[in-house]
Amino acid sequence: MPALFGGVVPLLAGLLLATPSARAASLAEVTDFGNNPGNLRMYEYVPTSAGANPPVLVAVHYCTGTGPGFYSGTEFASLADRYGFIVVYPDANVSGQCFDVSSPQALRHNGGSDPTSIASMVNHVVQRHGADADRVYVAGASSGAMMTNVLLGDYPDVFKAGAAFMGVPFGCFATTDGSGWNSACANGRISKTPRQWGDLVRAAYPGYSGSRPRMQLWHGTTDTTLNYNNFGEEIKQWTDVLGVSRTPVLTDSPQPGWTRTRYGADSTQAPVEAISVSGVGHSLPTSGMTARVISFFGLHQATPPPTTPPPANGACRVTNTVSAWNNGLTDNITLTNTGSSTLNGWTLAFTLRSGQAIISGWNATFAPTSGAVTAKNVSYNGTLAPGESTSIGFQATHTGDTGTPTEFELNGSACQVG
């Protein structure tokens, strides 16, 4: 198996600008933390600043790394001293020191293997230290980033947010031959629609209807170990899971070489935040990045940030296909009720691109003919049961812009697009 993130410990160790020379607390191994099907080792750092009911951060190392190595090679412990949260460092404890993110057991809730062991670690910390079960987070690099994606899919009831440095989407590394390595995924050759990626996450915990954890994603543009294409696939997956548009609400550059996009909200704790780092390979995180992780989690705050609620009843998914010619086009729209309640009457709101004007429509009434348009059901398709779809569409003129609407709302609730 190729090494993920191997040889980077010296780089990280040299970047500990915020780590004090001595701490009153120290890293400790926990030898009996409960159900451990992955045969992992567990290390914990409980700072003297941790008060009653402290938050928990699980920090997951890369291939060839260890829990103690990730402790000494990242800034999480010094940040824990400052803000009073507990850090748990899982240790893969196998040849190559990679985590299982490939087996069928690893890709389902309570399925066994490494994710179940890590969930046991969290439960142990909550019980032993009185930690706050409503403020549990996970961050990881490379193999640990892949595990971060897996843990958020397997245990949305445990983790409130995750941060993945140089990872791949949940399920991308799945294998059927017993191997822990998926070359097609590693090389960025697996691409799925947002819904397909989202369905992999939802299938990990059938029947779960609670809040979903937020996700922060980091990737270097010249990564040759886990190809940069995986960054875009992760964005597809988590915007779909969290029910937010893939059109960023913010694009900026908080540091030279960084491109940050936020999805669903322009806030420090957005549902999804993605940071692309130009000209950097498989060597993240570097100094200062972990502090931004802490802000995204809200661990610098006395009170937790709000959770992201599940898509409301009446939420929908929209796919649409445009066929264009000279100065005309048709747009075929498929509307799916992804809520848990039957819709009895619906309106679908969207905004046409500049210069487009509807001249006719089918299976819905459209008004007005340009700008912000509302499509209302007709008599025979007003009832949509959960999971049921209907097809509508329109013909329009255009003045050159033949693009599709990028955002839709069903009865006032934002839809997933794609």
UniProtKB/TrEMBL annotation:
Gene3D superfamilies in the record: 2.60.40.290, alpha/beta hydrolase (3.40.50.1820)
GO biological process, one term: polysaccharide catabolic process
Keyword annotations from UniProtKB, A to Z: Carbohydrate metabolism, Hydrolase, Polysaccharide degradation, Signal
GO molecular function, one term: hydrolase activity, hydrolyzing O-glycosyl compounds
UniProt xrefs under SUPFAM superfamilies: alpha/beta-Hydrolases, Carbohydrate-binding domain
Domain of life: Bacteria
Protein name: Esterase
Organism field: Streptomyces caelestis
